[in-house]
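Please fill in the sequence for the structure shown.

STRUCTURE ENCODING:
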């Protein structure tokens, strides 16, 4: 599993077209935990060269600003306390074009690359080689740059387990629009009932490989916020802990669904403390306030909840 910020699990991934400099300029202040700068479907074929150049220049500017901030911090303490900047992911095109994009854009400003229409482990291995060279070139630690394969075909979904275990993979994501088109699945149900078993299978593959939970799918109708809220809560119940968004209006619902309340965090911390004291005294289980038995399985859920605190 690739490296990532300790204790930080993004709740929201906001897509931003790579050929829209005005949107890139605003994206960092939208409040998303992570951005996915898109070089694939959101960019017309005639604009892809322009998009690559614009994203390259934007990342170079980000790197310059980061160096200036680091120099200012080393010169003395700052009284400013800005929030952590969002992770920056780049969605690259399939095949050789995507490899060239990874080679061009890999650097200290990038968290990782989303592999559109991932064809399998051979493609991931090729990106791993490119990113290994980029880490050496930029003085980054091994495994700093992560990968997030997008599973958008039946073949990719069936290969989810080996894909999840491939080098640098931090999380998986379903590309449900393309997948449904291939399989003939009706996407009119906002809850995605027809996709429930596929979403569960990707979650199982992720957990078995020790990855973060998959990133939940986009909803293209950003005007239907009530439906988006319900489907996001359904994803949380399924075990997902994040979701991709195509519009900033969707971020609030995602953050509400995947942010534990202060009461939930306090209850989890109290449970963990009581269990620790009980095990130190030789007991293997304790009884909760409602009279139910609490064992190590329940405690794992409490630990996972506390790991998402912000």
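FILLED IN BY: designer on duty
SEQUENCE:
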């Amino acid at each position: 599993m690739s490296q990532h910020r300790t204790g930080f699990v993004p709740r929201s991934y906001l897509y931003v077209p790579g050929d829209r400099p005005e949107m890139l300029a605003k994206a960092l202040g939208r409040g998303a935990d992570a951005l996915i700068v898109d070089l694939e479907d959101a960019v017309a074929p005639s604009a892809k060269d322009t998009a690559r150049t614009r994203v390259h220049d934007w990342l170079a500017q980000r790197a310059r600003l980061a160096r200036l901030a680091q120099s200012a911090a080393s010169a003395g303490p700052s009284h400013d306390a800005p929030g952590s900047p969002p992770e920056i992911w780049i969605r690259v095109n399939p095949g050789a074009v995507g490899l060239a994009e990874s080679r061009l854009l890999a650097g200290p400003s990038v968290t990782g690359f989303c592999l559109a229409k991932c064809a399998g482990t051979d493609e991931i291995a090729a990106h791993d080689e490119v990113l290994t060279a980029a880490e050496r070139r930029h003085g980054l630690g091994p495994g700093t740059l992560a990968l997030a394969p997008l599973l958008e075909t039946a073949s990719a979904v069936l290969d989810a387990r080996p894909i999840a275990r491939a080098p640098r993979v931090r999380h998986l994501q379903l590309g449900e629009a393309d997948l449904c088109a291939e399989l003939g699945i009706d996407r009119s149900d906002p809850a995605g009932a027809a996709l429930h078993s596929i979403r569960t299978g990707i979650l199982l593959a992720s957990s078995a490989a020790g990855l973060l939970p998959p990133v939940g799918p986009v909803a293209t109708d950003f005007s239907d916020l009530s439906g988006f809220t319900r489907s996001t809560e359904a994803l949380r119940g399924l075990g997902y802990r994040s979701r991709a968004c195509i519009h900033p209006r969707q971020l609030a619902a995602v953050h509400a669904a995947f942010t534990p309340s202060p009461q939930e965090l306090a209850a989890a911390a109290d449970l963990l403390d009581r269990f620790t004291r009980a095990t130190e005294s030789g007991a293997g289980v304790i009884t909760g306030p409602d009279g139910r038995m609490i064992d190590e399985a329940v405690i794992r859920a409490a630990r996972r909840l506390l790991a998402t605190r912000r």
